[in-house]
Amino acid sequence: MRPPAERSRDRALDRSILALAVPALGALVAEPLFVLVDSAVVGHLGTAELAGLSLASTILMTVVGLCVFLAYATTAAVSRRAGAGHRAEALQAGIDGLWLALALGVALAVGLGVAAPHVVGLLGADADVARHAADYLRWSVPGLPGMLVVLASTGVLRGMLDTRTPLYVAVGGAVLNTVLSVTLVWGLGLGIAGSGAGTAVAQLAMAVVLGIVVVRYARRERVSLRPQRGGIWVSAREGLPLVVRTLSLRLAILLTVWVATGLGAVTLASHQVVNSVWGLTAFALDALAIAAQALVGHGLGAGDTAQVRTVLRRTLRWGLGAGVVLGAVVAAASPLLAPLFTQDPDVRRAVVAGLVTTAALLPLAGWVFVLDGVLIGAGDGRYLAWAGMLTLVAYAPCALAVRAWAPAGTWGVVWLWLAFGGVFMLARALTTGLRARTTAWMVTGS
Q1: Can you give the pLDDT at residue 427?
Q2: What is the pLDDT of residues 143-184, one digit of tens each?
Q3: What DSSP string describes 141-177?
Q4: Average pLDDT over residues 95-119
Q5: How many CB atoms within 10 Å of residue 416?
Q6: Among 65, 161, 193, 438, which lies 20 to 30 A Cα-Cα from 203?
Q7: What is d(CA 152, CA 149) in angstroms, rounded to the nearest whole number?
Q8: Is the pLDDT score of 35 beyond 60?
Q9: Neighbours of 345 (CB within 10 A)
Q10: What phi, psi does 94 have (nearest 5°)?
């Protein structure tokens, strides 16, 4: 039996983890809720529209995902400086991150808006599906600057151990997106384009609110709001390894969608629903990773490696347990969820089978996300970049085998998710787990 003092410290740490993770959970699930709402609204327009949304949302989230370093690198930089007692420097790094996010968002919105039909065409969909995908992209890309500013602002606030503000803004954004999506798609009859426009407006509104909050933090510490060229360059340079790491993840997701596309419209439409639910549960599990990021960053900034090890141990237990609970919920709810997204009986059957498959794999995902968050919080982006490419190499042959030999429909969805949620996630678990057993990532100081 462990000493009472040690148990007391663990309980105190658990309270700290939950104090950060629970609000972060609400903020994180807002984004997949956007996708779920859009999927439910668009799904009742038809199978082709739902398949088009699958392609378009994958492309859009790939672009946004490649910029997730704006949140992760900012959280690590701000939390380290704040943990070392340098609040003004922490907030200056955050302001520079916001300027970088705004510039990237404008450039990417223009580029993707022009290239939308060509990008959709690369995924090999038929003409009807491709048309719907291009429509959604054109109307949603104006929200890209807002999406990236939301990432950077959220990273700043997490680094300051404020996960409540992003929660409140995310809830408001999710409600606004739901109202706009239903109104524009069904009330005004804009179809899938209305869903994209509603998402864009909601993201821009969230960016404005979060940006104002960060500016107020900076004003209190008398931090300049002007972009600092050196600071922006540092933000970009520190984020580059995380771009590579995220690129490996997004390439794996794109490969998965390409495989689903090759297995027919029913498989692709079903994959959109399963992937939307997976995204919701993944972001829920990622709340623990966010808590780990902030606590690890503060611990390393303060030079307390013993505390960092304790954070790693406790958050891994939480991640595994949360994965078991979420898996049970998804499996039990799968027959009830499928009818919410489509009236096609073939798609419904495939959705239920896919959700049961992903439910079994969620405990592994909970373990992986926490390890990933710990290493990101430690600023170990270079290793994560190499590890990400290695896991992609391990996954690609399995995905290609599914495309070559799996049948269309229900079993195609099952085999596809066994490959992605099983093989790919297991490879991530091995690479991050082996790294976490060492001390190479535990670099202290601000």
Answers
A1: 93
A2: 889 888 888 888 888 777 777 788 788 888 888 888 888 888
A3: GGGHHHHHHHHHHHHHHHHTT--HHHHHHHHHHHHHH
A4: 82
A5: 27
A6: 161
A7: 5
A8: yes
A9: 10
A10: -65, -40
